[in-house]
């Protein structure tokens, strides 16, 4: 099999998952499945939160694709690994860098990673499900742009600044 095609599909699926995550976060998690995502917008009690079910949901297509990948359709393996890769990037950015569920002491001060962290902090600047900004991860808009978007949204309640 063509290694280039394999890599292209893998990277393509990482990028595709950013779009899927953005749409799911904005319209599903802040929509009809807010009941699960709400746990992530409130202080966590214990190790897990209901919101972690989304990671389980996204692991299912990844595992199915990898199954077909090792049983005769190699490009399906690339697609499955792409979804897994996005999951790992998301876990590193979101759960480690921003929310410090495992704290390695990483505090990016400048550059791309600082921008990713700031963009997601601004996602959490609003109380409740309405009027939030910044639903993706890999493509993090600049903090200035997000603050302008936040200021322009009427339908929101700002959250008291967190200590973390
Ligand atoms: Zn959210
Ligand atoms: Zn978050």
TrEMBL record:
It holds the Pfam family FA_hydroxylase. Residues 12-139 form the Fatty acid hydroxylase domain. The chain crosses the membrane at residues 6-24, 53-70, 76-93. Coiled coil: none annotated. GO terms for biological process: carotene metabolic process; xanthophyll biosynthetic process. Belongs to the sterol desaturase family. This is Beta-carotene hydroxylase. It comes from Hyphococcus luteus.
